[in-house]
Amino acid sequence: MSDSYTEPEDLELIRVSKRFGGFTAVDDLSLVVPSGSFFALLGPSGCGKTTTLRMVAGLEQPTEGQIKLGSKDITTLRPYKRPINTVFQSYALFPHLDVFENVAFGLRRSGVKGKEVESRVTEMLELIELSHLASRKPGQLSGGQQQRVAVVRALVNRPHVLLLDEPLGALDLKLRRQMQIELKRIQSEVGTTFVHVTHDQEEAMTMADTIAIMNQGVIEQMGAPEEMYELPKTAFVANFLGQSNLVEGRVSSSEGDNLIVDVPGGQVRVMKSRATDHTGSVVVGVRPEKMWVVANSEHEVENSVRGEVIDVSFTGVSIQYTIESEWDRTITCFEQNLDVEKRVVVGEKVRIAWEIDNTFGLDGGEDLEAGVEYLGDTEE
Amino acid sequence: MVALIPQRQQADYEPTIRRGNKLFPYLLLLPGLAWLGVFFITPLFSLLSTSLMKWAGSTPDDGFLPAFEISNYTESFTLYSEQYLRSFVFAGLATIFALLIAYPLAYFIAFKSGKFKNLLLVLVVAPFFASFLIRTYAWRTILADDGAINTFVAGLGLLPDDRILATPIAVVAGLTYNFLPFMTLPLYAALDRLDPRLIEASKDLYANPIQGLLRVTFPLSLPGVVAGTLLTFIPAAGDYINAQLLGGPRDKMIGNVIQSQFITIRDYPTAAALSFVLLLSILILVTIYVRRAGTEELL
Amino acid sequence: MSSPVRPALSSRATLWIREHLVVFYGIAALMYLFAPIAVVTIFSFNKPEGRANSTWNEFSLEAWLNICKDPTICSAVEVSIQIALIATIGGTILGSLIAFALVRHRFLGRSSTNLLIFLPMATPEVVLGASLLALFLNLGLVLGPTTVIIAHIMFCISFVVVTVKARLQGMDPRLEEAAQDLYANERSTFRYVTLPLALPGIAAAALLSFSLSFDDYIITNFNSGTTVTFPMYVWGAAQRGIPPQVNVIGTILFFGSLAIVLVSQLVGKARQKR
Questions:
Q1: What's the complex ipTM?
Q2: Which residues are registered as beta bridge partners of B55?
Q3: Do B5 and A47 make contact, defined as CB atoms within 8 angstroms?
Q4: Confidence class of residue B205 from pLDDT cuts 50, 70 and 90?
Q5: Right CATH number for A243-363 from 2.40.50.100, 3.90.190.20, 3.40.50.300, 3.40.50.2300?
Q6: Choosing among C174, C176, C183, which should be mutated to test the A contact, i.e. which has the most A CBs within 10 A?
Q7: What confidence tens digit (pLDDT) does each residue in C251-268 have?
Q8: If pLDDT is split at 50, 70 and 90, which confidence band does B20 have?
Q9: Which residues of chain A are within 8 Å of residue B2 when distances are taken between CB atoms?
Q10: Listed residue (A237, A231, A154, A235) closest to A196, CA to CA
Q11: Which of C6, C93, C128, C129 is the least buried, fewest Cβ under 10 Å from its Cβ?
Q12: Is C26 in contact with B112 (CB distance < 8 Å)?
């Protein structure tokens, strides 16, 4: 377990399900985490991501399905028999042991000899710059320090996969940003496969090579952050990752590479390569930052929609307009703060435009509100 | 709209428990529960059967025969109803006084003691470390007829007999004192769990300190009050030491009667019947009390 | 620029009194709690005129220097200690096992078990003592130290369960998961994580059992036969007049236990920091 491995081993989940009585937490889930990658499992609370992580760690048993590490089936192995370690959400540092012994714990249980334990633990403590606190108890450390100890306590064992269960949740914003960079750096230095569970989409996008978005026990979409962001395949992903303006419509004809979709008040053009469905009722969408108010620029008008401005918010970096549009829906438009003079005011009637390439198309049956979080929703 | 997924309760995250042997927990439970079964449950049945025995001869020393003498119960009830009543009254008064004394004390420790909190908790429990009998006997010295306290209170003209000892007052005072830690600790535990910001919120909403106490603090500390009153009343009702050391011949509690029946007179059936009646009446009183207080969960 | 208005002296004083009312009360309550202890301690230094040690006569260290003047006192203390030691060991082991089962395992009959544990604490000592006596009599057993020990173990179990259970429940269940995640199997997890963390609770339970056993009078009286424990000696002496040596032992008991608890608290704090 603490030997270094040479063969790349992918982590594979094959049709894994987990049911608790009548409740299905994870539903027929399959995915492959490539060896050495930084993989994020993203989703709202209750979507099953933590349960999935625990099954990989061995702390829960799948009701159905298989888990494989490389060619080895580890589904029924006890947690202490898997070359996988976890960084827990609450850190779970042993309060009765000092920092050194906490980090040394896994090594000692694996039978590593005293001298080697000493050198490996010291090396890890130096990595996180906490060597001077080696004989302190966890209760005497700050949140950020505890978090770092929790990470190296897992890493020192040279696991084949490192699991992180929302480890940055308890930290304040600045510290969290720092730790995100730290973790990414450590991962690229050490080369271990990281599987990071979080509900913070910004965190996932910054840190991960691959993101899988989970919702109600299934994976909605999986891919590189940029690819998922620019081309969401479901309404949930479109709304959960960043923000989207969505509208229902019907494909009326095609024009070269594009589809023409009839929507209330007009038409929207979308590239065929960026639409999941090419006929019948569909949903088209575009992200707010891709749009601009027509009067403010010289771009050629490609896709557009009319409406009345009902709110203007100045965030410093951008100006966010909320518009009651002719689609019979409220849409948002983020404009970069370039020109102070030509600002639009509340009540003004405007036309909002965006490039055809930035439109994406989803299946017609999609719930336009999926993935949107409202004030009334329960917190984790 | 985010679909309504039932939130996983914290309880669902049970630790990975030893899966191997399903029988293991029963092995852990067996020795202790067996001990209780043999030396707690069975004796109660023994007591029950003894309580139904009848005299073999004309005196208790002649021995007893297994029988079904319900008259043991009815007789005890009528003969000693005075002592039963007195026991419950004394215990009730002691419980009330203990509550009145302990509540501010527990409040003090929970909210106003700062860094001395642990020390104070130890101090509250500390008298418990000295022998129960010795402590009670010390009260005899303190409340002695020629002592300062007795002289002072008698001087105020409050005492009918000009003495505290050998009166119900001394017995209740002793009971109150001896069971005070049992009242204080559960109260403290309940108060300690209170979020002080709730009191702040009540102040923000125009409650003065008294209203804050009555409408916010006290109701929220109710589980502690229930636990404390039970832990005080039950042992107090069955006590005989305070009555013996501090009371007079007319202050005997049912505990004294049971003790003398068992040890001195050795009329075991009567003694057993008296014990059972005590046990049952306590159970009934407790059940009514707990139902009314609305807290079913005691432990 | 005018200086801020300070409230009048009298109203500042009343404010101060009101705020500190609870503090005064707390101190008064503590004095009430310790009054008999103070009396016991003071009178241990008394040389009584007659048999009764109830009025102050003259200061003397005689009781302290000659504790075993009446040898029955010391043998009673010895008997009490022996019984308490065995009862503590028995009760702590049996009770801890139950506590572990209740908190860390799933099994049928959990609420019945909880009820069975709770009942002895809710039963008056008279009934507990009497019923055990009834059992021993019906079985024809001889009353003596053994029957006392049996009785003490019985009532200690409940208190041990409650104490250890509380400690275990306060323990983060994630810690055992973390241990398993770090290659500790079930036995190692227990040995390196669960047990060390439960130990303070077990120690507290043992201490509690020892005091309950040592100090018990009612149940012991019913079931001891001719054996005399320290509380029984005190009771007997209460009729004739309690010699100051009893006060000495009471004082030692009190300050000794207080010292143990305070020291263990300090040690606990130090271990947190070290």
A1: 0.83
A2: B64
A3: yes
A4: confident
A5: 2.40.50.100
A6: C183
A7: 998 898 888 888 888 887
A8: low
A9: 44, 370-374, 377
A10: A154
A11: C6
A12: yes
B residues 177-216 lying closer than 8 A (beta carbon) to A: none
What phi, psi does B54 have (nearest 5°)? -120, 160
pLDDT per position as a tens digit, C131-150: 998 889 888 889 999 999 99
Confidence of residue C164 (pLDDT cuts 50, 70, 90): very high
Name which of A44, A79, A371 is nearest B16 (Cβ-Cβ).
A79
Domains and CATH numbers, chain B: 85-293 (1.10.3720.10)
List pLDDT tens digits, range C205-239. Answer: 998 899 899 999 999 999 998 999 999 999 988 87
- Interchain CB distance below 8 Å, A94 and C179: yes
DSSP run (H or E) holding C206 = helix C195-215
Question: Which pair of structure tokens corresponds to residue C209?
Answer: 């059992």
Report C:43-62 residues touching B (Cβ under 8 A): 43, 53-55
Gyration radius of chain C's alpha carbons: 25
Q: How many helices and strands, by DSSP H and E, does chain A display?
A: 8, 20
Amino acid identity, position C22: V
Taking CB atoms and an 8 Å limit, are C182 and A106 in contact across chains?
A: yes
Question: pLDDT tens, A112-165?
Answer: 999 999 999 999 999 888 999 999 999 999 988 999 999 999 999 999 999 999
Domain ranges for chain A, please list them. 11-230, 243-363
Distance CA B155, CA B162 (A): 8
Does any CB of chain A come closer than 8 Å to the CB of residue B8? yes
Question: Are B299 and C120 within 8 A, CB to CB?
Answer: no
Give the three-class secondary structure for B299.
Answer: coil
**DSSP letter string, A88-101:** -TT----TTS-HHH
Residue C269: CB partners within 8 Å, gap ≥ 6?
A: none
CB–CB contact C138 B49 (8 Å) = yes
For A11-230, give the CATH class: alpha beta
Does the distance separating the beta carbons of B7 and A45 come in below 8 Å? yes
The pair of structure tokens assigned to C205 is 């339970």
More confident residue, B168 or C240: B168
